[in-house]
Write a structure and sequence with these properties.
mainly alpha
């Protein structure tokens, strides 16, 4: 307050001097006067800003009965912030991770029993994490899987072009076919590597968004971290089984099959080089059989569709754990359990009071 009074007195004297300079000085002093006027407006704005801060502080003190609010972070916030840069064995999930039922109840308990001053912040964090789960589901199912399907279509088209080129009656020669083997193998390996890199980058972005939201989540940090961990691990498992075990293995087998058939075709043509009709029929037969194999992709697209559905379900469950709905059975199961626990606690307290009274 003394500082503000001093500033007001100082600026008042400056304003008077500015008025005198403006009235009595020639034009080349006008710039000085303008500068002083600018500082005058800034001072007025700053005083108004300080007054607003003071009013807000007074309102906060009245709302909390002149008590300072507790800190907005917990020990777990500090631990998780640092351990994400360290090996997993430093603070393994087995120490802190909660199962789905425990963390669902934990979240509900924090929101229900937290102090009134903290509850709005916890509710906002809970809602933002629920929104994060929905956004993550969209990024994975609508963006990543859609791009994966598109890239797979392009790979099959380029593979069919390669087979048609390699079995063309005029273009076909051993040197050309050898180059095609290398091109096909490189294209398949590049597709697999890039898809895994895109999946990893997508998960990194999902993790980054979560870390930003829960940086100061306090008592909610452990259950929310448990929700995140399970959703990420399940998503990785589905992707590994779907892509690396299913689609990638099938593509490598397809590349090997095409290479084997074209090598066999090349050897048979050398044996039949004097019979142009037989060579032409053999090329057509090989091309047709390989194109049928390439076009038989229903199993891979079905696997993509199934995996997309599973991933969407994983993230929907994560959202439902964070935000419980009265329309869900788990909500009422938790309510009944809470009522039972409250009854047990009441009976225990009454029993203690009875024992004290009897003594």
């Amino acid at each position: 307050m003394k500082f503000l009074l001093f500033m007001l007195a100082l600026m008042f004297s400056v304003f008077i001097q500015a008025e005198i300079v403006t009235k009595e000085s020639p034009l080349h002093y006008q710039r000085i006067a303008n500068t002083v006027q600018s500082y005058k407006q800034r001072t007025i704005n700053y005083i108004s800003y300080v007054q607003d801060l003071t009013d807000n502080a007074e309102r906060e003190l009245k709302a909390n009965k002149n008590l300072r609010p507790s800190t907005v972070y917990s020990t777990h916030d500090i631990i998780f912030t640092f351990t994400k840069y360290l090996p997993s064995w430093v603070y393994p999930a087995s120490i802190w991770k909660e199962d789905p039922v425990t963390r669902r109840k934990h979240i509900a308990k924090v929101l229900r029993s937290s102090p009134s001053i903290s509850r709005p912040r916890y509710t906002a964090i809970r809602d933002e994490v629920a929104s994060w789960a929905q956004t993550s589901a969209d990024v994975l199912t609508k963006d990543y899987f859609a791009n994966l399907t598109l890239e797979l279509n392009l790979l099959f088209m380029s593979t069919m072009d390669l087979v048609e080129r390699s079995t063309d009656s005029e273009l076909m020669n051993s040197l050309f076919m050898t180059a095609d083997y290398v091109t096909l193998e490189h294209t398949i390996d590049k597709f697999i590597i890039e898809c895994n890199q895109k999946f990893k980058a997508t998960l990194n972005q999902v993790n980054s968004d979560f870390d930003r939201i829960v940086a100061l989540s306090g008592e909610l940090r452990v259950p929310l971290e448990s929700v995140r961990l399970d959703a990420m691990e399940q998503t990785k498992y589905i992707h590994n089984k779907m892509f690396n075990t299913g689609i990638a293995s099938h593509l490598r087998y397809l590349g090997h099959r095409i290479q084997t058939e074209l090598q066999r075709l090349s050897g048979e043509i050398r044996d039949l080089q004097n019979n142009q009709e037989a060579c032409k029929a053999l090329k057509k037969h090989t091309a047709d059989s390989l194109l049928v194999i390439i076009q038989d992709t229903e199993s891979m697209y079905a696997l993509l569709k199934k995996s997309k559905k599973f991933v969407g379900r994983v993230w929907k469950n994560a959202k439902d754990e964070v935000v419980q709905s009265p329309l869900k059975l788990n909500y009422w199961i938790d309510v009944v359990d809470d009522v039972k626990q409250a009854g047990k606690d009441l009976l225990r307290r009454l029993s203690k009071l009875k024992k004290r009274y009897n003594h």
